[in-house]
UniProtKB/TrEMBL annotation:
Annotated region described as Disordered, given as residue ranges: 35-62
InterPro entries found in the cross-reference section: Cu-R_B_prcur
Protein name per Swiss-Prot or TrEMBL: Copper resistance protein B
Example GO biological process: intracellular copper ion homeostasis
Amino acid sequence: MLIQSIVKNGIWLISLGLFASLSFSEESKDAVSGYHPDLTASEDSEQRSPDEYSDGLTLSSGPSLFEGREQLSLADEHTFSSLLIDRLEYSNGREENYASYKALAWVGKDYQKIWFKSEGEYKNSLQDTENQVLYGYATSAYWDILFGARYDTYQSRSDKGWLALGLQGLAPYWFEVDSSLFVDQHGLMLLSLNSCSE
C-alpha cells in the first residue's frame, strides 16, 4: 500500500515537472539568462584578438616552432614504449647449452597499452615457453587491468592456450604486484600472484 502511494505520487511529480519545463517559453528563458540578440551582435564585432598582445606569436608560428606542424599536444596524446629484460642467461657446457629469458614489453598511451610478456628456457633446443599478449587499461594512477591471451609451448606435451585476466600495479611501500587468472578451453583455472620490491 505504501509502495503504491509512493509510486503514484512520484509519477504525478514527474508529470508536473515535465509540464512546467515544456511551458517555460523561449522568451522567458532569454529574459532569465540575460540574453539579448542586439547586444550580443555588437559585442561579437568588438571582441579583441586573442593574439593581440603576443607580438605575432601564435600556437602554430614563432621563432622556436616548426612551420606546418601541429604544435600543441597534451601529455596523454603521445605514444610510448618500453622493453624490460628481467632475465637473460646463457651457459655453454660440454654436453649441453642452456639459456633462459624473461622479458616484458609494452606500447601505448597513458591509459591504454598493449603488453607482451614472455619467458622460456633453452636446453640444446627450445624447452617450455610462456607467451602473453594483453590489452591493459589504467584504472587509476598506479593500477592497470589486463585481459588477453596466453600461449604455452612444452617440449614434453602438447601446447596450451589460455584466456587471461589480470591486475597489476604499484602497491603502497613500493611493492610491484602482478596477479593473473588464466582459464583454458576445458575450464581449468590457474591463478598467478607475483610481488616484488626493490
